[in-house]
């Protein structure tokens, strides 16, 4: 991972982006991270979009909390719950 202070960047950001490969470039302002340049060559765009969706993140957090506290369903229980809603 490389860090570039925005105020000292000497080239256009597209130049940095074309060089990154698998690397992540973190852009900083006054030593605080403000953005990142990340390659999307091997990234699923839908997964990327969902990773920034607040509602989806909330669903995942709730599911993780349920799992951590033992609130889970077996496969048969899940099938039963789904068929009851149909």
Number of H/I helices: 4
Strand order of the largest sheet: 1-2-3
Report strand %. 15-25%
Mean pLDDT across the residues is: 89
Structural class by sheet pairing and helices: alpha+beta
What is the distance, rounded to the nearest whole angstrom, between the alpha carbons of the first and last residues? 49 Å
Give the assembly state of these chains.
single chain
Shape assignment = elongated
Question: Which bin fits the share of residues in helices?
Answer: 40-55%
Q: State the low-pLDDT regions, or none.
A: none
Q: Whole-number radius of gyration?
A: 21 Å
Main β-sheet description = 3 strands, mixed
Number of strands: 3
Structural domains: how many: 2
SSE arrangement, N to C: EHEEHHH
Describe the protein's architecture and organization.
The chain is α+β, with helices and mostly antiparallel strands and 86 residues long. It has two domains: 2-38, YefM-like fold (3-Layer(aba) Sandwich), CATH 3.40.1620; 45-85, no CATH class. The chain has four helices and three strands, in the order βαββααα. Strands 1-2-3 form a three-stranded mixed β-sheet, with no helix packed on it. The longest helix has 15 residues, at 54-68. The model has no long low-confidence stretch (mean pLDDT 89).
Ordered list of secondary-structure elements with their pairings:
Elements lengths: L1 E4 L7 H7 L4 E6 L2 E7 L6 H6 L3 H15 L6 H11 L1
Parallel strand pairs: 1-2
Antiparallel strand pairs: 2-3
């Amino acid at each position: 991972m490389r860090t570039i202070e925005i105020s000292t960047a000497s080239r256009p950001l597209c130049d940095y982006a074309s060089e990154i490969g698998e690397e992540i470039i973190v852009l900083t302002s006054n030593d605080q991270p403000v953005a990142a340049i990340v390659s999307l060559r091997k990234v699923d765009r839908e997964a990327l979009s969902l990773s920034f969706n607040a509602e989806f993140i909330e669903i995942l957090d709730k599911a993780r909390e349920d799992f951590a506290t033992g609130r889970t369903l077996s496969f048969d229980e899940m099938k039963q719950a789904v068929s009851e809603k149909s």
